[in-house]
Amino acid sequence: FGDSLLHISEVDAIVENHVPLLEMIPPEPKPEDETIGKYIAEMVPDGATIQLGFGGIPNAITRYLMGHKDLGIHTEVFGPGMVVLIEKGVVTGRKKNLHPRKNVFTVALGTRKTYKFMNDNPSLESYPVSYTNEPSVIAQNDNMVSINSILEVDLLGQCNAEFLAGSQFSGTGGQLDFVRGAFNSKGGKSILAFYSTAKNGEVSRVVPRFETGTVVTTPRMDTHYVVTEHGVVNLKGRS
Fold it and tell me: Which intervals hold domain Acetyl-CoA hydrolase/transferase C-terminal (predicted)?
């Protein structure tokens, strides 16, 4: 459902394949994930549309959203935690301005249960990334809340989510698209979450400035809320 189909006229060849879909099992949340998840859940109002990344922190957040009502989904990655929210009736999509009562995504990663839930499910709509991640599209849903992970932040408010120990750690992904889209949504907010330290507390992830060559994923002028296990700070408009 959505806009994820190819017409047969666009296909040159079809190769039959019975390889099982790749499973991505999210890690069990650590204590820090649980604390961060609680902070973030308190920032999500009833009726909000949410975007979640993949991993321990997003998995923890879904546990603390169970008491929420009428949430909606407009996300890049659809994963196991979202299945639980839909099944429990937390997600209804009833308050969405765009695609009401539909859960919009562009890629899905999860377990066998995730894929079984998705199969022929009319509540799910998949669209090209050029649509789901377009900030002007994201902003059309009121109270849009984007929730993503980063690796470190400097005292200017710049956030790095892809560069670690001098090497590329991950891709850019749609983080900045959703940061900007959520901020421009009426009542929206973007949240970037991470552990405050690494290596058992020996290395701070809040640094005076990034090392030369470090990639900036979210520029300082776009950073909104930053959350660690120690609390929440709003950096928007701060110097």
Answer: 110-239
Instruction: Evaluate whether the domain defined by 23-234 bears CATH number 3.30.750.70.
Output: yes
Q: Which of 193, 204, 179, 190 shows the shortest CA–CA distance to 229?
A: 193
Find residue 153's DSSP bridge partners: 159, 206
Q: With cut-offs at 50, 70 and 90, classify the pLDDT of residue 170.
A: confident
What pLDDT, on a 0 to 100 scale, did the predictor assign at position 72?
Answer: 99
229 catalytically annotated:
no
Nearest-angstrom CA–CA distance, 49 and 42:
14
Residue 230 confidence class, pLDDT cut points 50, 70, 90: very high
Residue 206: is it exposed, middle or buried by C-beta count within 10 angstroms (0-12/13-18/19+)?
middle
Q: Is 153 helix (H, G, I), strand (E, B) or coil?
A: strand
Query: 9: Cβ–Cβ under 8 A, 6 or more apart, which residues?
Result: none
Tell me the β-bridge partners of 73: 50
Q: How confident is the model at residue 86 (pLDDT cuts 50, 70, 90)?
A: very high
Q: Hey, what are 174's tokens?
A: 């749609």
* pTM for the whole structure: 0.93
Domain boundaries along the sequence of the chain: 23-234
Residue 188 to residue 146: CA distance in whole angstroms: 8
